[in-house]
Amino acid sequence: MTVTGNLSESTPSGEVRALLRVLDGQRRHVLGILDELDPKDLRRSVLPSGWHCLGLVQHLALDVERFWFRAVVAGDEEVIRDLTSGDEAWRVAPDVPAGEVLDLYRREAELADAVIAATPVDAPLAWWPHDLFGEPHLHTLRDVLLHVITESACHAGHLDAARELIDGRRWLVLT
After folding, report:
1. Residue 159's closest CA among 72, 9, 59?
2. How far apart are CA 164 and CA 67, in angstroms?
3. What is the Cα–Cα distance from 70 to 103, expressed in whole angstroms?
4. What gap in Å lies between CA 38 and CA 167, rounded to an integer?
5. Alpha-carbon span 173 to 175, nearest angstrom
6. Are 73 and 141 in contact (CB under 8 A)?
């Protein structure tokens, strides 16, 4: 079973289906490494940079899934208008339940998958954040998928380190 449900039959190509399977594996890793972690520990910072697991998941939901697929690929004007700047996505208010943040990540992944399924792999991007990145360095859905896979995998590794520091649990043990 995938985090985001079954991939749409309207997915435009085998290449996109393959990329989505890899991205979905990273999404499952992000959620899986946090499985059964106490809500208090989800907010516990264990690295000198000060971030915590819940903040990283919220970052993935807002600054990665929502930003790259709904804003950049689809050009959703409401999403673009509501984008935050700086590190706001990393900060989770104390009164926000952990489950709400995890559900936000799942929901944004589902919305991203809908954009992906409706977009040809070589389609030009609908919007580019020149103020953040200057001239475009990503140009198509394929480029964005590869970027998001890389960023998600990197952050899954960050979560692995944090989880091991919190309670010793490891996602993948190679002996």
Report:
1. 59
2. 29
3. 17
4. 10
5. 6
6. yes
Contact 24, 151 (CB under 8 A): no
The pLDDT of residue 173 is 62
Q: How many residues does the chain have?
A: 175
8 A C-beta contact, residue 164 and residue 170:
yes
Count of other CB atoms within 10 angstroms of residue 36: 8
Instruction: Give pLDDT tens digits for 30-60.
Output: 999 999 999 999 999 999 999 999 999 999 9
| Whether residue 152 has pLDDT greater than 50 | yes
Task: Tell me how many degrees the CA angle 8-145-149 measures, rounded to the nearest 5.
Answer: 105
Copy the structure tokens of residue 40: 């208090």
Burial 1-29 (b: 16+ CB within 10 A, else e): eebbeebbeebbeeebeebbeebbbbbeb
Residues in CB range of 148: below 8 A, 6 or more apart: 23, 64, 65, 68, 69
